[in-house]
Specification:
The protein is α+β, with helices and mostly antiparallel strands. Pfam families: SapC (PF07277).
């Protein structure tokens, strides 16, 4: 999964360069149409597990990360309809932060970036980024606070993923979808918590996960896997004619 899949031209936000810029809200979610998975922070599991399958995968740098599965084929997001609406009650924070994003700078500092490729960036319509004195507007301040909270949750989520790896709880899984026309295809590279390994954990480890609220995250992850079949149902409604999804050990 790409960490910034639809950011066409992310640049550091600059008080002088972007002083006259405004952000016109997107009319829909077309920018995310080709994202078949997205990063998900642990704090989002409660809501996301009701509608999405939550699995784990490796990011480009080798880090383990939880993601929501949005499509079973490359470049396919089954949660965006023809009118560019997001067809789920909960929209992941990864989507809601757009067109802003935090980027790591030299010296382990974080910088705020804006996607100049976003069609809503302009100089005449929408919410201003800076006021006449060059100070942050309430709109920009709210966006920055959202990014800061998101980054804090990202750090917590990475710690959770590290614990799963250290405990040896993860196993590879592939999801197969069978089509009524006889075709089938498999989505590989997914990782899930192995329930047998979870049940075999020492009591002290289980208690530690429970006290940290992380055992609850594991439960939400496992509960969410039934949504893989619902994802196939979405594909069938779009003409993919898929009839069954079968999670299998890789």
């Amino acid at each position: 999964m790409a960490q910034m899949p639809w950011y066409e031209k992310p640049v550091l936000l600059n008080r002088e360069k972007h002083r006259d810029r405004r952000i016109r809200a997107a009319s829909g979610f077309s920018f995310a149409r080709k994202a078949n998975s997205l990063y998900l922070a642990g704090v989002e599991f409660n809501e996301a597990c009701k509608e999405y399958a939550i699995v784990f995968t490796r990011l480009s740098g080798g880090k383990l990360a939880p993601v929501v599965v949005l499509g079973l084929r490359s470049g396919e997001n089954l949660f965006i309809d023809e009118q560019e609406r997001w067809k789920a009650t909960y929209v992941p924070a990864f989507v809601r932060r757009y067109p802003f994003v935090l980027a790591e700078l030299p010296g382990q500092q974080m910088g705020v970036c804006i996607d100049e490729g976003f069609e809503g960036v302009n100089t005449s319509e929408g919410d201003a980024l800076f006021d006449a004195q060059g100070n942050n507007t309430p709109y920009l301040q709210n966006a920055l606070e959202f990014l800061q909270r998101y980054q804090a949750e990202y750090v917590r989520t990475q710690a959770f993923c590290s614990k799963l790896e250290e405990a040896g709880l993860l196993t590879e899984m592939s999801a197969r979808a069978d089509l009524v026309d006889g075709r089938s295809f498999t989505v590989a590279g997914l990782m899930v918590v192995d329930e047998k390994k979870l049940m075999a954990l020492p009591d002290a480890t289980v208690l530690s996960l429970f006290r940290a609220g992380e055992l609850h995250l594991v439960s939400m992850h496992l509960l969410s896997l039934s949504n893989l079949q619902r994802l196939v149902d979405r594909m069938a409604q779009r003409g993919g004619a898929a009839v069954q999804a079968a999670p299998k050990p890789a």
